[in-house]
Amino acid sequence: MIRVVLPYQLQELAGTGREVTLELSGRVTQRAILDGLESRYPMLRGTIRDAETKRRRDFIRFFACGRDFSLDDPDADLPESVAQGRDEFRIVGAMAGG
Amino acid sequence: MGTIKVFVGTRKGAFILTSNDKRKDWKIDGPFFAGWEIYHITASPVNPNRLYASQSSGWFGQVIQRSDDGGKTWNPVGNNFSYEGDTGTHQWFDGTQKPWQFKRIWQIQPSVTEPETVFAGAEDAALFKSTDGGMTWMELAALRQVRGNLWQPGAGGMGLHTILLDPKKPGSIVIAISAAGAFRTDDGGLTWKAINRGLNSGSELPDPTAEVGHCVHNLAMHPSRPDTLFMQKHWDVMRSDDAGGMWREISGNLPSDFGFPIAVHAYEPETIYVVPIKSDSEHFPPDGKLRVYRSRSGGNEWEPLTYGLPQKDCYVNVLRSALAVDQMDSCGIYFGTTGGQVYASPDGGDHWEAIVHDLPAVLSVEVQTLS
Questions:
Q1: What ipTM was estimated for this complex?
Q2: I need a labelling partner for B69 at 20 to 30 A (CA). Which of A65, B100, B103, B205 fits?
Q3: B59 to A13: CB separation less than 8 angstroms, yes or no
Q4: Closest residue, chain B, to A49 (C-alpha)
Q5: Which residues of A touch B33 (CB under 8 A)?
């Protein structure tokens, strides 16, 4: 079970709480998590990454285990603690004014 | 007794203001989509329960929301706005060329005849069409063929911000882009032409009368006279009586011919409204006096409408989509400001009162008249 934490705006959009859980088969990567998330919550398509290119939006960051994974290969394996649900995979809106 | 709903898009959410035909006491609902920019929220003329809202954010991109119960509940619909084919490039602020990149939807215009058809104006400039209530979108890409490489962003971005639909000829659409100009199609978007003859942009363009590149801020049309178009350009208020074939200036005695919105009275096709703004740099009302100007002669002769509006120390702006009219017997006029006020006049502009004072900066105002 993967635990994914959404920023407030996307919680509101998807009608979820702070954390959603996903069951993934196969390797646990950024891409697999986001594919699973968008499959379960289609209204999130395009809000975290571009709907066509799948490129992460500029003001979105991915944190887990005290690390920033935003610039990592989206197909790289995430830490085992994320795959086992001990640590959260956090989707974060970057700090910016407004 | 009729009902008026004023749909207000702001920098931090949407609001729906409801009153009866007296337009005195108002119920304020919202914020909807709190924290998101709502560039536009509007109703279908065919199905009054069908509303659309353009919800966007610098963080999370574009969402289109749809309501089928008059705004009580909302659901996201399609937000995949993919440009068709190779977009080529447009001018950037510095004159270099830059590829098209989708940023947001500025304007949503539901069809006046087909309940499931709706148009959306995008930044970077493009017109999208949906025939399934906003679930899927297709670009009417021939528009970009009209010298798209010479279009350029205005200060707010290269947005397609105005969509006028001819109620008698469904294939006829007039749109405006900052800063590219006005364009029209008469075959549903298969072919387009620039309609910018007569515009003079000597302050902004190397060729003041260029075919494209003009910073058109807003267009207005009375549905009974689709060949008469009114324009608030960056500088100059203009009109055309031949569907955009030629424009002539009607700024007349306005204290400033700069401004953003323009609107036509519901029943008097020669009565038009603008809100003069001091520019190029200030973008607030001249002399700190918030004045709507009305012409009852189709332009050139303008009168200030001030009763109930602040006449000193007022330094708000009124943006291009933030002026609208209702269709009550006594035509009501509404506008919103960057200071968060929404003003209403139930008598064509003679008397004004603020419906609300303290909303987030207002981006758009639309009005729905329900019998």
A1: 0.90
A2: B103
A3: no
A4: B60
A5: 12
Interface of B with A (CB under 8 A): 33-36, 57-63, 75-76, 79-80, 82
Q: For the domain that residue A59 is a member of, what is the CATH number?
A: 3.10.20.30
Residue A23 lies in a domain: yes
Q: Which domains does chain B have, with CATH numbers?
A: 80-250 (2.130.10.10)
Q: Which residue range forms the structural domain that includes residue A18?
A: 2-93
- Strands across the sheet with B13-20, in order? B27-32, B13-20, B3-10, B362-370
Total domain count, chain A: 1
> pTM for the whole thing?
0.96
